[in-house]
Each structure stands twice: as structure tokens, then as C-alpha cells.
Amino acid sequence: MPGKIITVEHLNCRYNSVEVLSDISFAVEAGDYVGFVGPNGSGKTTLVKAILRLIRQESGTVSLFGKNPGEFSEWFRIGYLPQKLSFLNPNFPATVKEVVSLGLFAKKRFPKRLEKSDRILIDEAMRLMDITDIRDALIGELSGGQRQRVLVARAIVNGPELLILDEPTTAFDPEAREQFYHTLQDLNRNRQVTIILVTHDSATIGKYASKLLYLDKKVIFFGSFDAFCASEHMTSYFGEFAQHLICHRHD
Predict the structure, then answer these.
(1) DSSP H/E element including 215
(2) The model's pTM
(3) Tens of pLDDT, residues 76-104
(4) Dist CA 246 CA 251 (whole Å)
(5) Which of 96, 134, 209, 238 is the right S-S partner for 242, CB 3.0 to 4.6 Å?
(6) CATH topology (fold) of 4-250
């Protein structure tokens, strides 16, 4: 599926009178795996919300799958895991399998019922996220890392062409985080899912992502990790020692 999945042109966003994003322009191609990195408060989550039209930008344009604002309505083509989940009450008596199944209802018409083919998709999503053994557990009984894997399964069960994950590994231990990154790499390489992953860890995501977008209210860098490490501009931005640490960890 060639072509641009996301095109952002001269995007500006404000919260009240405070400028959060300034003149953001870049494009994500089909098959890209892009890490959105940058310090806390750099606008990463705001950028994701602007792409998904969850907030209104002050100016600029964002097109999805080649369609301008107002033309795109096929939201089932996008899987999204926000940083903070307002919709999930841990005390709600839903099982892992039931939560994962919610990801299938976006493109169903009324009456919204699960078919046999849907159950196959649910089982596959749970297998990918290694949660099959807890399929009947209540969501409130899970650890933070387990719950996060359930929510990622919910985001991918529909077979999205674009997957956007905002700080998905904060509840993972190092081993689970590494396994999770490998799973995303498999989705990207073998299933052609275009991925955007928001993280503050430039070095770790550099091992997996095909491109980095370093953001600090404006685009500081956009390109491959190798180009990031070779960039004199980024060396000047971070300082030589910090740049060496980021790129050495990648090795």
C-alpha cells in the first residue's frame, strides 16, 4: 500500500495562550515505523491528538491516507492507544477477552454482534500480545503491564493499517518492554502496519524504528536513527557526550 499515510503541514497548536506546537511539517509513508521522541512537555501527545483530530489546531493541515480534514471518516483503519485512559475503569467487571473484542466494533453496523471470524481475530491479537493465558481474567485483577498488553491487543485486533501508541511501555519491566518492541517490529515488517510510537527513550526506540521525529515544540529532527547519530545539528543540540550516550546504547 504505497503512499503517504500522514501529511502534516505548518501545524500550530496552542493551549489557551501558550504555544505548544510551532510550524510542524513532516510526512509518514506507508510502512514507516516512526518514533516520536523528545523531553517531557515537548508536545508529543499534543501532536498525536492533532493528527487524530482529538483537538483543534490553531493553523496548518493534517491529512490522513491522502484525505484532507473533513474528508476522512474511516477511523477503523487506525489503532490508537492513548497515554491516559479515561474510558477504562479497572473495577468494571470485564474480562480480558471482552476488552480486546471492543476493538472490533468500530467498523460494525447495528446490530453489533461478534461472528466466528471475529473470535479468530480476538484469539490472534491475544496470542500476539501473549495474554491468551489470562483471557478470562477480569481487567481489574491484572498488573499494569498485563493491562497495557490487553489494551494494545484491543488496538490491533481490527487489523489497522496505522497504529499509534502513546508511551505504551511505561508499566513494563525491561524484559517485557524488549518483547513488546519485538512484537511491534513484527507487525511493521511482516504485516505492513505503519507505526507511530511516542516515547522519551531515544536510544531504545532507535533500535527498532525506521525513523525518528525529535520534537521540542517544533521539529528538531526527522529522519533515520543513523542520520540522527551522524547529525552535527543534533550533536550541537544535545552536546557531544549526551549524543554519544544515545547512539552508543543503540550499538
Answers:
(1) strand 211-215
(2) 0.89
(3) 899 999 886 655 666 778 899 999 998 88
(4) 9
(5) 238
(6) Rossmann fold (3.40.50)
